[in-house]
Give the backbone structure.
Amino acid sequence: MVTGLVVMNTFSVVIAQRTRELALLRTLGAKRGQIRSSVLIEALLIGVVSSLLGVAAAVG
């Protein structure tokens, strides 16, 4: 439960920092779904890589 809250808080901070970039993408014609998809894909990739590194560290 705590880990989920930490991850959620981390991505909230990342999105807050990237607000200008996301606004620029909207200005250039990106749709909300495209931006949401890109953020979710980035979150998925970071989660998978972090999980793999955590498993490797635990095994090692």
Observations:
- The chain has three helices and no strands.
- The chain has a mean pLDDT of 89.
- The helical segments are 2-17, 19-27, 32-59.
- The radius of gyration is 15 Å.
